[in-house]
Amino acid sequence: MRSNLSVIQNFLINYSKFSEEALRKCSGELEKEFRDNFFKLKDLYVEKRDEILEKNKITADQFNIFRILKVERYEVTTHSALLKELLDSRGSHGQGNLFFINFLYLLANKDIIPKDEINKYSPKTFDDYRCNAELTVNTGRLDIIIERTYGDFRFCIIIENKVDAADQDEQIDRYWIYLKSKSEIPENRKKILYLTKIGELPSYNSIKLDARENLAKNGVLYYISYSKDIIHWLNEVLPKVESKKVSYLIKQYIETIQNLNDGRDE
User: Fold this and answer.
1) Domain count of the chain?
2) Which of 51, 220, 248, 266 is the Cys-Cys partner for 215 at CB 3.0 to 4.6 Å?
3) How far apart are the C-alpha atoms of 124 and 106, rounded to whole Å?
């Protein structure tokens, strides 16, 4: 490695000497040294390029279906749809409530729900709580909603998903109006999770400051992020996934989330 760096360093040093004026004055010896180093560098480049290409046959490091289809930043049809599918115990991933249970552990670690209630939220592998995305209700449309509206352990968790879109007028206010109307749900199990790339707060356009602080104080409104919380959740659950197909998709989705903040709109 040191010899490779030395070749590159020598090339750059010599190349810096080749201004138009220096080139006219350079000796044949210096020109020969420059050319020799240039071809050594070229050979090293070809060697490393071929190594990477051979490795890529096995690892396919650059292959990502979200990037290929240019849907990395699609809030509704990519992120809300996929999160809903994973959180649904009857989703096509076939893993039952594995993703939801681990999501509940994430919420418990953030003191959003009590740890001793995790298994009450979802006691069965293929549970019958409802999980929907882009659900239209009387106060608007909910990005993701997970709820049980019957039995001994009723709950309602609404996830407001923000990737690039701005807040809509009174959006969180309208979510809270909807939650308040669900009298069958105990007050301590009504939750709004505001999900953004890095954990931003909702704008005053979405909810006034005093109302926002009041909901947070009363254990209703919480802030979670893709960059920390969702990546942590997926990395925690990944070793437990039994389907290789699902595992591979999760790995690609984690890569996609890691790129959300790099400013690309591919």
Assistant:
1) 2
2) 220
3) 19
CA atoms of 111 and 223, how far apart (whole Å): 12
**Cβ-based neighbours of 147, under 8 Å, separated by 6 or more:** 129, 130, 154, 155, 156, 157, 185
Higher pLDDT, 72 or 84: 84
Distance CA 254, CA 240 (A): 16
pTM of the model: 0.79
52 and 112 inside one domain = no
Together in a domain, 123 and 20: no
Q: What average pLDDT does the structure give for the chain?
A: 87
**53 and 153 assigned to the same domain:** no
Distance spanning both ends of the chain, measured CA to CA: 35
pLDDT in tens, 233-251: 999 999 999 999 999 999 9
**Cα–Cα distance measured from residue 143 to residue 68, given in angstroms and rounded to the nearest whole number:** 25
- Same-domain check for residues 110 and 29: no
* CA proximity to 215, closest of 22, 206, 142: 206
Task: Examine residue 68 and state whether it is found in any structural domain, yes or no.
Answer: no
Note whether 105 and 152 are same-domain residues: yes
Pairing of strands 140-148, 130-137: antiparallel
Provide the pLDDT confidence category of residue 9 given band limits of 50, 70 and 90: low
What does the block give as tokens for 26? 């350079």
How would DSSP label each residue in 10-69? HHHHHHHT-SHHHHHH--HHHHHHHHHHHHHHHHHHHHHHHHHHHHHHHH-TT--HHHHT
- Within-domain flag for 263: no
151-200 residue pLDDT tens: 999 999 999 999 988 888 888 999 999 999 999 999 999 999 999 999 99
| Owning domain of residue 87 | 75-258
